[in-house]
Each structure stands twice: as C-alpha cells, then as structure tokens.
Amino acid sequence: MANRMVSSVQSLGNSDSITYISQREAAEIDEALMGPLGFSVDQLMESAGLSVASAIAEVYKSSDYSHVLVICGPGNNGGDGLVAARHLCHFGYKPSICYPKRTPKPLYSGLLIQVESLAVPLLSVEDLPVDLSNEFDILVDAMFGFSFHGTPRPPFDDLIQRLASLQNGDQTPQTSPFIVSIDIPSGWHVDEGDINGAGIKPDILVSLTAPKLCAEKFCGPHHFLGVRFIPPSILDKYKLRLPAYPGTSTCVRIGKAPKIDISALKNNFTAPEILEDYQVEPNPFDQFQNWFDEAVAAGLKLPNAVALSTAGKHGKPSSRMVLLKEVDKDGFVWCTNYESRKAHDLSENPCASLLFYWDALNRQVRVEGFVQKVSEEESEQYFHSRLRGSQIGAIVSKQSTIIPGRHVLHQEYKELEAKFSDGSLIPKPKDWGGYRLKPEFFEFWQGQQSRLHDRLCYSSGEADGKTTWKIVRLAP
Fold first, then answer.
1. 141 has binding-site annotation
2. Per the UniProt record, which EC number(s) apply here (predicted)?
C-alpha cells in the first residue's frame, strides 16, 4: 500500500469528510468484493442500478420528467444502466434503451430479457432522434466506467459528443434533457477528470462504492453515492470516509443540495373536481373518514400526522406535528405531556386547530374547535397501547424543559429499561395523557389546475337540540 496513489479527501458540511479513490484503488476494491468477500458481479450490478434509479427519482419526479433514454456501453457500466432502466420502469418512468454493442454473456442476456418483458423499447443508434431534446427528459450515460482505458470508438464517440453538445450549446436548462452519469462521466479520465473540457457535463453524477478522483472535478448540482454494502475490512484497508446512508436509502447525497428559488416551486394540481350536489357527505366526520381512508389506501406515510396549532392567553400562536390517535363523532384525539407548551396554551386558551396535509392526493383538511382532556381511563388505555420503548420515553422526557444534553435522556432511559426488563407494567406518568378536539368547523381543500382549488367548509349549528352542519364553498 506504500506505493498506491494517495486518495483525496474533501470536506463536507458538519465537519464530515469523504474519500475519493484512484482508478487502481477502485479496481482493487472490486477484485476484493468479487473475490474473498464473496460478492458476485450481478449483486454489484443490481445494487448499482437501483442506486442510480433511486437518485433519479429523488431529483426528477416521474410526473414531470417521465421519458428517459439509457445509453448502455458494452461493459459493467452498461449492465448498471440496464438494471437502472428496469427499476425506473417500476418507479413509473418510461425508459428506452440504446445498447449498440451488446455483451454476449448470460448475465447481460438476462438483463435484456427482463427489460423486454416490461416492454421497454430497445433503440438502435439509427433510431435515435437527431435532437435528443425532442423526445427525452433525462439521458442516462451508462457507457463507460472506471475500468475503461483509451479513446471511445464508434458509435460511442459520437454518442458522447452528442450528450456533451447538449450542455455546451445554446439550449437552456429548461429545454435540454438532464444528463445522469453512472460512476464516471463517459470520456472523462478516471483520475484527472474532463481533461480537455469538452466532455459530458452531467446534472447528476452517481458515484458507486466510493467516488473516484475525477468526481472532485464534478461541478453539477447533484452528486450521489450508491452501492451500500462496503464491508468494514474495505473501509479500514483503504481508509475510506464515506457519508452515512439515511434510513433504508440505497443512495446518499454528497455535499449540499443546490440552492432553489423558493418562488419557482409551483405545482399545477390535477384532481377530479368536488361537487357539493353528490360528492360530499352531509356530515363532515363522514367526509373526513372517506378522505382519511383514501390516504391510507394510497400508502401515504403517517396519514395520521397532523399539525396542531395553539395559542396561550397572549395570543401568540405555535404549531407542531402530532399523531392522531382516534377520530369519531366526539372529535379528534392525540396524546402528549400535560406540562408541554401546547398543554400550557390549552390550559389558558382551549381553542385549537388541526391541519392534515396529504401531498400525494393534493388534499388538506383543516379542523377548528374546543379542546379538553380525555378521561384518565382513556389515557391509560392509550399509554399501554404504545410500544414499551415509547412508554419509557414518555417517562424520561420532561417535554419542553431544558436539558444539558442527550446523554441525560440515554442514561435515564437505560435505567428504566433495566428496571422494567422483567416485563412488568410500566406506570403511566401523571403528567401524560390525551386531548380531544371537538370540531366546530371543517375545511376540505382539494388542489386543482390553475389554482382554482376546491374549498368546502362545514360550520356547526344547532336545530331541535341536535348539531347541524352548513356547507359552503369558498373562493380559492
């Protein structure tokens, strides 16, 4: 290792750092992965292709940029592209593949069969439009990876030039397709980058395993890292410092996301119009249950998450997200610490509002009313329906009070975890329980085109001793 090229380390935010590896190091790591560490090339390819598709999906929504051309080379990089095309198809995109020099090996033949079974078009170079901008929103450069040496031969030399010209021409970013390069922008030197400055300048670079030295020269807005299974022995041997993958993600962003003009973030909503005559329930609780059931059926994450807004006696508002525990004709229930800020607000001013926002359905529901505590019996029931870890956490957290650090929470949690390790009943804290908001007002909002949104409101009244609901439509 004494003679190996020294890797470069670039600082990131929050004092993190990342290692950039040389072409030789990349080859050595691949040999180790597919040798003594027991990985197969198809495993690496599957992980790489999924990482690429996930990175694309994170930046470019399929609803806005659906037409994708994946240009595959004859080697492993091309195989990564075939896998990415398959995943993009399942993600809701409409990929096409240009694969001029097909590799006659069972692995690649199988990958072709897989995309053909999904009716993904396979285009020859001659089938491609003269202007790629006319038919494609995204171009995936899967031609050459880190093992490529020499000068690209036909037809790849011309394809690389065509992709490079899209960035170097007079077209604006709004009319040019976005370019995504897998591991190495094709035509770049693996260690030195785009030497003559005439190469592809991708919008997204998805580095695999670890970013290569040329990636330091990458100036595009989105740099991701994929292939999430590097064992500790490789990390230690090559002293790799790589960013942590969030949650279950198959890719992670390197560096900061580009700055965005907030005023440019717009959405021209599309949804069936809501007509009062026959599409709306006369009772708002029934209407809410219908929409909530549809949010659950749509697979939305935590459709019961709701913004709770309160204000104390001085009228200063505050909002936070809570999880709805129950909804019925008596109201909406959530649980919290009775010494928290929201609890103090409610003790001074029992009026509050709830806001549910279901982005994927272009819907929101606003509920206003009076709040009161639920019975102690209900609070006990809610408390013991929680996971034991959450029960202990409720005891540990004196919500909204100042603490010196997380270590205080961890220490007390460990002590209580040990205390109740025998499975005995964990007592509910006296200062923990539920609240119920009894609604007086509902607004159901459905996004529509040209900002002509639907806004249907229910206001409560009383007739013959019974609660009645008046429905009106508000201008958007």
1. yes
2. 5.1.99.6
